[in-house]
Sequence to fold (887 residues):
Amino acid sequence: MQPMLALLRTFSWQDLRHHPWRSAAAVAAVMLGVALAFAVHVINASALDEFSQAVRAVNGQPDLELRAMQGPLPEALYERLATDPQVARASPLLELSAVAQTVDASAAANSVNPARTPLRVLGADALLLPPMAPALMPRPWDGADRFALFAPATVFVNTAALQALGLPTSGPQNGSQPPTVLLVTGLQQRVPVQVAGTVAAGGAPLAVMDIGAAQDLFGRQGALTRIDLQLQPGTDTAAWQRTLRAEPGWPANAVFAQPGDAAQRISNLSRAYRVNLTVLALVALFTGAFLVFSVLALSVAQRGPQFALLAVLGATPRQRLLLVLVESAALGLLGSVLGIALGTALAATALQLLGGDLGGGYFAGVQPALQWSAPAALVYGALGVAAALAGGWWPARAAQQLPPAQTLKGLGTAASQADRGTLGLVLLAGGALLALAPPVGGVPLAAYVAIGLLLVGGIALLPWGMARLLAALQPLAARHTLPLLALERARRMRGSAAIAVGGVVASLSLAVALTVMVASFRGSVTQWLDAVLPSPLYVRSALSTSGTTGTEAALLPAGFAEAVAQLPGVERVQPLRASPVQLSPTLPALAVLSRPLGDNPAQSLPLVGEPLSVPAGRVAVYISEAVVDLYGVRPGMEWPALSESFRPFARDGHAQAAIFYIAGVWRDYARQSGAVAMDRAAWLRLTGDARTSDLALWPREGADTATLQTAIRTLAATHAGHTAGTGDHGEALVEFASSGAIRDRSLRIFDRSFAVTYWLQAVAIAIGLFGVAASFSAQVLARRKEFGLLAHLGLTRRQILTVVAGEGAAWTAVGAAAGVLLGLAVSVVLVHVVNPQSFHWTMDLAVPGGRLLALCAAVVVSGTVTAWLAGRAAAGRDAVMAVKEDW
Fold:
């Protein structure tokens, strides 16, 4: 037993020594797949962990948080909760978004535009921070007034804000004055504040100040954003909340949330993106398994006589099976170890250069540290080994079933047995049924399994399909010697041919599916942009480019849209307002969009289907596809929760909030968390808030765009209280963008988001083409004695190469056709199942025929050239001498 084991080890080692490139190719395939998948996991895990830590630092650890669905909470609510016997502590907070810029006298004098930094301003009661949120406790600099934390117009910033604003971390030196920062919100509010110290909280730039000072500074008297609560031990939280909601006068739009809900919301929002990226990265592992298969198939084919000799010397079929499996496991293990190392390096580089974004936009502005996980590394390493074992299984079975006597004589294996294709049909049917299953926890797990079953089922159906194809082609080749020779050989060895074509089908089907999915998504986004960008010119606050888009800091003042509409050269102006509404503490805030919709909303919104007629006394709203999935509402339903979120505006003197009626669904590719569109007249009637986020502007025919922009800048300066079209430091107050520029920028963002997908697609194609080359090399090199016999029968070398090249072209053409059909089936699942279940939007299927034709041509040319080159090596003088031993 021991001598045989030593012989088997020597056998494998000698093959590795003589063919190192072959093993290196398989190791590289596994390494690449593991590296991509592990890097995606590490990047996303690091970003999510950093975001969660920042949220915990800023929010502290209260038992509950009380927030309003939209707008502020009344300050009287704090008094009610602070005196409640079940409440141990209640901490009021006021959150504001602003743009900060350092006040530099020399810069102002020279009209130099100072750097802008989006800043989260948090007003808090410093006496309540130590037990509630110690990371927010102000730490005055040396020399600062000890009562600075209560002083007006005084802030304490975190390290990120210091770095972004270029301020010294240790405070003013040599008795100099504390630095001054200008906080800008909208066009009309620009307030200077002194930086008196720091806070320990991490994350994005943050400033903390006394809540009373913040209310006075920003004109928010009597308003709170949230109230953090610590309850008495033993309090029944659910019963206590029910008691509060039943009290007369309790605000209907006030919602309680758990401290970890904010991190959970961003985790749920980015989960689909993270899972899809990971699955796409594992595509490289799937194609890598086929490359391992091709490499080991080549190895087994070339070592056929040696395997036969081992059998004669006493190696059992099981030992031959285990020998090849051990080789594949060794390749997988080495590839996995190298892949984990490469993935770690890729993740570290990406985190340093790109942050934790990866194109998805969920962690923009977060600069996380690398979070390396040993269990995750073991999982992805095990996946690499499993992929290699899966790829090595069929060659191992071939080595196990190899007939020693026939192989030593060069007769090869017996013809393939008839295959009825039952297994393939069952797998395809199972994949089709699973594609109809709903998502699990918001992740399309069944759809991913369905894609796997479709791929494996399609490949398993190849021998059956080839048998039918060869039977149909036989009458056509009966009168031609060379085609008949190739056809008969393929008919008797169709199992081996199907294995070679399987690599083509695997790589090409995945490439086709990804190509169609990305093309469909991009085409749908392009059509959507054409629908939502009707005007040639758009105007918005210049603060929107500073990271405050969607916040009150970036709103244009009331009356500005009407003033712009009166300017010469303006034909029409359409204001748009976007406002966040938090209907559920566990779901991200949805956006309420108000814009003029008129009598025909289909002209302003890309509706899915026809709009419904609105009953009397109801306010029409149109929900995006994400709202349908996230909130379980449908057209024709009323939406009481949304109505409740508008009820406080009625108490502020506006008309009673009407009941909202869902009149239609529209496509929105910009907001994965959902959006609700309503007519601007209804928004103004319900809220009385005439501020706007953007203006869509139609210039009059022949109007000079530059002159019009100058007039609008002057108008903005007038509303801001300045005398020129810029702010106090020379910066522009508004910015302009054409619909074409917005469209191009949006498509660039789309392409950046799918850059990883493009790269993974290229990797899959490259691995697949290499697998084609290795598979045909294995098939052709194993036929050297056959070529020698054909030469003795009178065929010239050119004729033999013609037969081999024709076989390569024919089989890769068959594989390309099958790969395209299978890829189209998989793309249907990706477009119509995975994307709606993951991101809650639908799209139209678009098939880029030119790109798919180029892919097929590359595969066919690769297979033909590879077969011809391998045939040249196998049909030389050695092939003639290879049959001498049989004479």
Summary: Residues 797-839 form the longest helix (43 residues).
